[in-house]
């Protein structure tokens, strides 16, 4: 098999041709500044409004509750920092989990330096937030709960509706990082009692550099970027019109194909999981077996170093990862895998393969064969594996 098999869709996705086509006129033909008053700028204003409406409809939200950003990281920063600033008179306690994306964890760590107190909830062995611990963690001075909708590394889907109900009952704001889940799972902000939601275009076959933050009407959040009246005076700076148009088109397409796409991805996912766990010894599937994103697989191979495995798979035309793309190059094991109870030596041997509807069963068969070859070769060079086998044969 000579072509590249791309299995890192949690890191980024291919921009669909229809999305690129929708964006092109706004680079070369409709290039006016949306803030301008003349007629030439009208197509840009109208295009932004259409995208905002499309996104709002996908969430059961209002158009004026959607604020465009540069992506998920900015949206997470805005939601958490602005909520902390706006509601600190009530309290300075925030609750999140130990498996959040670093855009959330590092923002919380920053706020701790400013005098806020953060509770980092444990998760179970499947990566699910412990609801009873959440209830116990809420205090009179708790102002925000931030729990991701689905984990970007192990794919586990969190009990968001239940968390939202608890937050609403206790009068606490609820933010969810839905970067991995949005347009892959049906989400209704009212049904799930979500006050703020972060999403990013390049996770759903849209362009990079564009995302949004949903902010429920009535939340008293201040501007995040100062210097202009854009985004109803909450996020200054000339709008990324091509990106916004591309995001709107990507959402339109993703919503229309969500069920069919998820069904195909789930079938391939389960086939890949079944073969790997049956044919490779000393391997563990990380994350919940069924309550996980349709396209996510994450394995931990004992006696294997993950980076070596990735390099060897890459030499065979397979693109995967050992965890979040934002931490690639780090020598530390995944904080998510440590949080679900894996020891360091096993967490180092992780492999995340995230599929798309464009992948095939033939590709999965090729990937499994190459994984088996790579694992055998790496274990043949591992003194730990040699000692383990000797001890177990004795």
Give the arrangement of secondary structure elements:
Layout: E1 5-6, H1 17-23, H2 25-28, H3 42-59, E2 66-69, H4 72-87, E3 93-97, H5 102-113, E4 117-121, H6 131-137, E5 142-146, H7 160-170, E6 173-177, E7 196-200, E8 211-215, H8 230-233, H9 241-279, E9 283-285, E10 296-301, H10 306-315, E11 318-319, H11 335-339, H12 344-347, E12 350-354, H13 361-380, H14 383-393
Parallel strand pairs: 1-11, 3-4, 3-5, 5-6, 6-7
Antiparallel strand pairs: 2-8, 7-8, 9-10, 10-12
Helix pairs in contact: 1-9, 3-9, 4-5, 9-13, 10-13
Structure description:
With 394 residues, this protein is α/β, with parallel strands linked by helices. The chain is 43% helix and 13% strand. It has 14 helices and 12 strands. The protein has helices spanning 17-23, 25-28, 42-59, 72-87, 102-113, 131-137, 160-170, 230-233, 241-279, 306-315, 335-339, 344-347, 361-380, 383-393, and strands at 5-6, 66-69, 93-97, 117-121, 142-146, 173-177, 196-200, 211-215, 283-285, 296-301, 318-319, 350-354. A 7-stranded mixed β-sheet has the order 2-8-7-6-5-3-4, sandwiched between helices. A 3-stranded antiparallel β-sheet has the order 9-10-12. Strand 3, helix 5 (102-113) and strand 4 (117-121) form a beta-alpha-beta unit. The protein is globular, with a radius of gyration of 22 Å. It starts with a strand and ends with a helix. The mean pLDDT is 95.
